[in-house]
Design the sequence.
């Protein structure tokens, strides 16, 4: 296992590799993450594997079960999905409202980058990894949280971070969702450009509601694909 950045520890490198595998669908939801097997795969001792898995546990993507080890987090249930989106509907419009009161040219310049990246992904004929999609989506929402200049709201958003990543990971979002998300992000951005914080909050609320509906549709498609022929 090579390290491109000399400042990175083995645990840092393993963390990045495992995160990439989780996001690219290498592991199925609920799959066991065997430490000796991963150590052999990455050609490292078991110590950096354990450290990386412990960090991933904090993201919500990995779970540790006493006496059994680490497992990939399971799919969200319908109830969990609704509860997560309810939390986002409380928090993220408030973040957009506060960010809209503090718009700067520098903020707008940074915010348009992940929008353009999402749009390019949705229009490209080249198959891209889910990680590219999620990175652009996360960057957009993270920048708004930071611009709110409210450390308590920002901290609350960050505390949801792992669960939001888990949501993105297991609803199997693709290029079609990237197109919708890019358009919805652009509407939020346009409200910021217009210096209309209330409108930015409203557009954020619409975006999260739409994401919830798309997630439900994706979940139904996943369940349909997994059902045996003739099954119920």
Sequence:
């Amino acid at each position: 296992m090579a390290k491109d950045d000399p400042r990175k520890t083995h645990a840092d490198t393993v963390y990045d590799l495992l995160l990439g595998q989780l996001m690219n669908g290498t592991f199925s939801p609920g799959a066991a993450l065997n430490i000796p097997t991963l150590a052999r795969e990455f050609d490292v001792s078991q110590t950096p594997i354990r450290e990386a898995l412990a960090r991933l546990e904090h993201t919500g993507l990995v779970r540790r079960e006493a006496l059994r080890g680490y497992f990939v987090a399971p799919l969200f249930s319908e109830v969990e999905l609704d509860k997560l989106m309810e939390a986002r509907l409380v928090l993220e419009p408030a973040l957009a409202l506060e960010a809209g009161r503090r718009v700067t040219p520098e903020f707008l310049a940074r915010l348009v980058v992940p929008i353009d990246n999402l749009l390019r992904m949705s229009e490209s004929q080249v198959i891209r990894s889910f990680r590219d999609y999620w990175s652009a989506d996360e960057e957009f929402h993270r920048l708004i949280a930071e611009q709110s200049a409210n450390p308590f709201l920002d901290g609350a958003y960050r505390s949801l971070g792992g669960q939001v990543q888990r949501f993105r990971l297991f609803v199997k979002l693709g290029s079609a969702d990237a197109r919708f998300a890019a358009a919805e992000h652009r509407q939020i951005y346009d409200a910021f450009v217009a210096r209309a914080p209330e409108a930015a909050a409203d557009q954020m609320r619409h975006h999260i509601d739409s994401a919830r509906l798309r997630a439900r549709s994706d979940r139904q498609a996943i369940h349909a694909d997994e059902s045996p022929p003739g099954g119920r």
About this structure: Residues 10-72 form a domain with the Arc Repressor Mutant, subunit A fold (CATH 1.10.10.10). The first helix runs from residue 10 to 23. The mean pLDDT is 84. The longest strand covers residues 62-65.
